[in-house]
Design goal:
This protein is α/β, with parallel strands linked by helices. The protein is built from nine helices and twelve strands. The radius of gyration is 20 Å and the shape is elongated. The chain binds glutamic acid. The site of glutamic acid has 7 residues, from loops.
Length: 300
């Protein structure tokens, strides 16, 4: 018998900025099926590092919605809002290893958001004041990885992204930092999530390297888009998925993952349909598919 194969640990990590929409259900389902087919654990983490963007009641509604779809998670739900001390320790570790620096540049000094950081504070040491952000120092090399769905992907962080923020001026920890700390500390081995996060992955891999942690295996699912090609998001008020018409909605979500249960099974219970999906999940059918149009007939 092979000795000590690391057991699979996957996760779904929604930000509670609103109820789950069809795109988030597809991401939850893809990560769930991948974990279950690999006889792995599937964890739930609520990524609430940004209280101003959090919608009241959204976390509880997300849990209730996953339960309504019989997507039951293992272990206790982890809430990022309770993990400030861990993120701070990680920031301090990077600062003391000269892999991060304090930055007091204002948006106007940076020439507006979305620009690549010009490196001002990296070269002029900024003292730590209460209103300073912390940025991670990227290296002038390409960070490449093999995505299990999208194939090889590389990004030159220095040219394409720049030194990125890991702690904001308002003292909130950035997603890039929190996601790496928690995925590592929760022992996550496989990350299956939406295609919108593919170009965040090299930043996360750079952080794994900086902490000398080993990076997980990534799979980025096709992103569910509107008819006009735009991303469905809680911000553009994508409809919340139904808590009652769960079977019909689940069948649409499976179709977005190229899974079509046989007709005779389509009237069975959610558990029967999910069991069939576990046995038939095949990521290779999604190879290189970046988008999938949201069906207009999803029940409300
Ligand atoms: N919290 C992120 C979101 O809701 C997802 C994080 C991840 O899967 O890495 O978009």
């Amino acid at each position: 018998m092979p000795r000590s194969i690391t057991p699979y640990r996957g996760r779904f990590a929604p930000s509670p900025t609103g109820p789950l929409h069809f795109g988030s259900l597809v991401a939850a389902l893809g990560s769930y099926l991948d974990a279950r087919q690999n006889k792995g654990a599937w964890l739930l983490r609520i990524e609430n590092t940004d209280p101003p963007r959090e919608q009241k009641g959204a976390s509880a509604l997300i849990l209730k919605t996953l339960e309504a779809y019989h997507l039951f998670w293992d272990e206790a739900v982890l809430y990022q809002s309770q993990r400030q001390a861990i993120y701070e320790d990680h920031c301090q570790q990077l600062l003391s290893n000269d892999l991060a620096f304090y930055c007091s540049c204002s948006r106007s000094q940076l020439g507006g958001s979305g620009e690549i950081y010009p490196g001002y504070c990296r070269h002029h040491k900024t003292p730590h004041k209460s209103e300073t952000a912390i940025r991670f120092k990227v290296t002038a090399e390409s960070v490449c990885f093999q995505d299990q769905i999208q194939g090889p992907y590389c990004q030159h962080l220095h040219r394409e992204v720049g030194d990125f923020i890991i702690k904001r001026k308002d003292k909130l920890y950035a997603y890039q930092l929190a996601v790496v700390c928690d995925d590592h500390l929760q022992g996550i081995t496989h990350i299956v999530r939406g295609m919108d996060l593919l170009d965040n992955t090299p930043r996360q891999i750079a952080l794994y390297h900086a902490f000398a942690y080993s990076a997980p295996i990534y799979s980025h699912l096709p992103l569910i888009v509107n008819n006009d090609g735009g991303k469905l998001s809680k911000q553009n008020l994508a409809e919340p998925i139904s808590l009652t018409a769960t079977r019909a909605t689940l069948l649409y979500a499976l179709a977005a993952l190229k899974l079509q249960p046989p007709a005779e099974l389509q009237t069975n219970s959610l558990d029967d349909i999910l069991l069939w999906a576990n046995n038939n999940w095949d990521k290779s059918k999604l190879s290189n598919i970046q988008h999938s149009i949201c069906p207009t007939q999803i029940p409300q």
